[in-house]
User: Fold these one by one.
Assistant:
Number 1:
Amino acid sequence: MKKFKLSIILPCYNEENNILASFKVVLRSLKTSKIKNFEIIFVDDGSTDKSKQKIINIIKNFKNKFLIKKKFLSKNLGLGGAFRIGVQKSTGTHAIFIPTDNSHPTKGLSEIFTSFENKKRNQILISYVKNKNARSLIRRIISNTYTIILNIIFLNKVKYFNGLNIYPLKILKANLNKTNGFAFQTEIILMALKKRTKYYSVGTTISERQKGATRAFKLENIFRVFGSIAKLIYRYYVK
């Protein structure tokens, strides 16, 4: 059995004001959780701001302390596409997606990291939000409705599909997302559960991003998510 190693995938798209703070929160959380064997993988998803330079500076300043990789995409694929590229560069036993929008505090990440159970290393750790009131009412309504509909369609009881989840890399690669959009983790989880993969749930604390607005609830992205779910239904039940 390989020694546990966590691949932390940090997709980035125009997050020049948040990426450094997000990176430092990850480092503090790893230290608090006493996780020493890890790699950090930045995937810039075709940013048009100074995100790439921020990543270069981070690597320059920390390359002698931690294993940090980078991949700069020439065009914007979408969050799911950037994550998929990060998985392909991963060498760990497990992987987690963490957004670079600085919306997950040290406390929240530490709750996830410290809840990982080695005896359940072949299961997916699926996190859910404990402090739901940290987000706006409309976002909570959309998120809850999304979760309820998916559980009805796919006959599951997953608490949350879009959290920060720790995947065994073997399971992740066997169920790697095809969608490039925001529904990528929904696809991964549901396709893995179809194969009777086990999971356990862990509550985590979040905070709203401090700078900039989320792109997840833009109308075009919502339509893309519905399109991804329609394709997923076909793959799950027909193909």
Number 2:
Amino acid sequence: MTRPTSASPKVSAEKAKATVTTKPRAKKVAQKAASTSQTKAKKQPQIKTQAKAGVKTPAKPKATKPVKTVKAAAAKSKRKAAAKAVASSKASDYMPKGYNSVTPSLIVRDAANAIAFYADVFGATELSRTYGMDGITILTAALKVGDSIIHISDEMPLYGIVSPTSIGGTASALQVYVEDVDATWERAVAALSVVLLPLEDAYWGERTGKLIDPYGHVWTIAKKVEEVSAAELEARFNTLYGTPVDAVEEESLEVLSPDNADEAVKLVDISEAIATDATYTANTIEAHTTLQ
């Protein structure tokens, strides 16, 4: 039998003490870990429940989405404004402000009264007027009709600048869209314009008519009244005029002529239509209306 040494009781006592001391600490750490795990487990279902119920929490990205949307919209608006400013600056480099790419220039006899005519009939606004050295001849007057600008000039035969009145005709025409086409038409006729095609509802979806103003220029006055598709346009054309021109032989083109020749619109000689002895003045419309 082995005899115990004097150190054995002391080692056993320290070991026992260490064991007793360690067990409460381990237990405490284990309890803390379990408590943390339980807390997380409780929070997770709560977050899911709130999400299902549609409740937004501060931690959710959805809470900041409206702010991001507003910022994105503001940024988009700024980009559009910047792009518009750049486009405008580029246009101003080669084109005066308010102008479009093409500007009609009308030569007339007696530009001063012609300007009054276009103002009274089409509501034109005079933007500028430049006189020649004689102080009478209008070299250029800029008028704004709707959103477009046109130029009016006196004829100057010495420089080869002549009006329809002088040459007895014109090879061009202008088309103007107006809000009240009937009222505009009545004013034009009252101001001594000659009707070429009467005002009517055309098959292509516009109410339109054509006339010659007192200065020899041809105008088509129109207003859009309906949208017409390409298929509907073709169907209406075929109903009115028969088979399209490109689908018939040259010998059968009479299908495009009216059945009754008396109903055909008579061609107007512009030189005869221009009333040289009936110059338009500011009170012409009023006088014409009074006579009626």
Number 3:
Amino acid sequence: MGEHHLTHPPVQELVLSVYFERLDPSKEILLPKFWDIVRGDYPVTSIKNPRAFIVESFDNVIEPQKILQPASPCRFWLMNESKTRVIQVQGDGFAINWMRNDQGDEMYPRFEPMLESFKDLLVKFREFVKTNGIGDIRTIQCETEYVSRILEKNIFKEFSDAKSVFKIAAVFDNEMQVDTDHFADSICFEVLQTNFSFLVRDSESKPIARITTQINPAILASSREQALIVNNVARGAPLSDHPIDGAVSFFRRANKWLGRVFRESITEEAHNLWE
């Protein structure tokens, strides 16, 4: 979503990820030992299926994205006690998450502190794999993802209230009256479910990233309330050859791109609620 200078953004999750050339597969068995370095802050562990990465392609309109199947056999999650912060490690990828828990008792930490945490942890991870002869980080793709949940009762109580949140739905604010064979029928907006993408070009008009937005209706399992789940993703290559600084530069710019797109997509009513 991008923070776009909102004081109370509806962020449920922020993920910063890098995909890199696969580390030495014969030594990937050593990756769980990275936990020894961070277990003081991340004492909870879990094993997940490996994650496939999407690499953006800007020279093929038929296939703008390539899904690279994971080479690693598994992915390790290292979590803090409240399970709101996660480090994800696999043989060709590294990510950190912040996730709002069910109690909602941890404030969203904001983008810059999350980015500093990502940089610090990736530096430690790179030193770990180099020291243990597992390889080195050669970043191929970076990804920023915001997951937001729209549930504020003063603007959203049911799916049709999406027109109070997003401009794309607001154009259908009024019922449409249609006379059909002597019957006065009415058409009204019901639910918003959509996705769209944006191409990011640099000052020389070179494509450097793609932004995708998905908006889906959902019914919360715990309360049965209607909500909108919004996924905003910026994805592209690192902005320099340095395996860490290139990713950090991408994330900083991506956050501004995502912020601008989100700011332009919401209504003034929604902006006033979250500012």
Number 4:
Amino acid sequence: MTGSVAVVVLHYGSEEDTRRCLASALPQLKAGDRLLVVWNREPSEALRAEAARSEAVRALSPGRNLGFAAGANLALREGLAGGAALLLLLNNDATLSPGALDRLRAAAAEGPPPGLLAPVVLRPDGRVWAAAGRVSWWTGRTRHVGEGEAPGDGLAASRADYLVGCALAIPRETLERVGFLDEALFVYGEDVDLSLRVVRAGLPLRVVPDALVTHAARGDEERASARRAYLVNRNKILLVRRYGAAWRRPAFWLLHLAGVARRWLSGLLRGDAAFRRAAWLGLRDGWRGVGGPPPESV
């Protein structure tokens, strides 16, 4: 692969996470590369000033939380306009290990052109968080390939339905051929959707096992949030409607309804009325095919 790289980071949540993320990426940029930061949440003046110190950083301020898909697309379009040949989506709570960007750059130039590339994402304890992902179209659930294992070359051969959006390298040609992230999904599942479109276009997914990223992998509080309950329930249905075989859908609905009922009971036991309501709203909107940002009531 010849041409520059654009690293795309969406700031949302912890400023310390964003600082660590930017600090891991900046030393790995070469001449002509750029780091595109989207302020999906307004940063402090201190963080804004820190980001502005490097000429390689271009900050984009939409003025509101666009969601992951739309925020990423804003930066991806900026990267393409700047001539980037490879664009790396990187969560702001993830850090690139030394040399990871060069290894992704090299992998993009090897063999048949890949549709998407991904490093191996590690947990803070050094075990694998995700090398890739698989989807069950019976339940709509996803799972990470290699989770809990030690990193190694064997992960490169893992069968993947999708590559994980925590750290996802997208060649310019892929975006030009299959398009951008689906903004109807807002957040959660947009990596699955993009990967499936790439595979349908006949392009391969490639894991680069010697490129490593560490993910903070927090999430107990987020997993229990009403907003996440809504988005995960809704987007799971939207993806099954698009990609799941019609003959599997009756079983999917039975299994999914049972899962929603369990989550509703979990919210009841915790006394969390917002969580219970969000789970049912996600079910309703998924059935109706409604995408976009979550309702203000969630």
